[in-house]
Automatic annotation (TrEMBL):
It is a multi-pass membrane protein. Signal peptide: none annotated. Coiled coil: none annotated. It comes from Eleginops maclovinus (Patagonian blennie). This is Sugar transporter SWEET1. GO terms for cellular component: Golgi membrane; plasma membrane. It comes from the Eukaryota. Mediates sugar transport across membranes. InterPro entries: SWEET, SWEET_rpt. Its main location: membrane. Pfam families: MtN3_slv. GO terms for molecular function: sugar transmembrane transporter activity.
Length: 217
């Protein structure tokens, strides 16, 4: 097995593992028959992100990107369906889902109608996917500031943090091998935010030793 195959398998294993951390929330919803204290928008935006990268992988003819994001999108759709079943805010969640679907359809129409096939479409799509991915990695920074102030890391998920670190690292190395900046750049912030989270776990571990197990975000 050469280096490229090794990195490909690493990306698949770690990324699917990261997406699978949502199964904890799914289990919680089924046990409590409620979606209270579980955030919906991360499922929705991750699904949109997966579908965007799936299209990028199809244009690039990269089976690793395609496979990972098919699995990711299917898992997010499962989480969304279960959330819709148990939430008390069905009208709000449904409207958010419809809005996201409309935005996805408009994006697909733009890329397939106004952009010529080839490098132009691929680069524009890669840029759009990169912006979404970076924003998702940076969105928890406000929570990290609050954790530094309070010293309470229970709102963080240690398994998700570890999975995100290895996933981001794998994709950065994979992108470097492909010389693809649209893979390298958006995954680099994931490494740094994961390291910050791991530092916070270590820094405030003594404070939280007597607390229950870490809850998912």
């Amino acid at each position: 097995m050469d280096l490229m195959q090794l990195l490909s398998w690493a990306c698949i294993v770690f990324t699917v593992g990261m997406f699978s951390t949502g199964l904890t929330d799914l289990k919680k919803m089924r046990e409590t028959r409620s979606a209270d204290n579980i955030q919906f928008l991360p499922f929705l935006f991750t699904c949109l992100n997966n579908l965007g990268w799936f299209y990028y992988g199809m244009l690039k003819k990269d089976q690793t990107i395609v496979f990972v994001n098919v699995v990711g999108a299917l898992l997010q759709i499962l989480y969304i369906i279960v959330y819709l079943h148990y939430t008390k805010q069905k009208r709000l969640v449904t409207s958010q889902t419809v809005a996201a679907g409309t935005m996805l359809a408009c994006g697909w129409f733009y890329f397939t109608t106004f952009l010529t096939e080839g490098d132009t479409r691929l680069s524009q799509l890669g840029l759009a996917c990169s912006v979404i991915t970076v924003s998702m990695y940076l969105s928890p920074l406000t929570d990290l500031v609050e954790i530094v102030r309070s010293g309470d890391v229970q709102r963080l998920s240690l398994p998700l943090t570890v999975a995100t670190f290895f996933t981001s690292t794998s994709w950065v190395l994979y992108g470097l091998q492909l010389n693809d900046q649209y893979i390298v750049v958006p995954n680099t912030p994931g490494i740094f935010t994961s390291l910050i989270r791991l530092y916070l776990f270590w820094r405030f571990a003594a404070v939280s030793q007597s607390s229950p197990a870490y809850s998912s975000m």
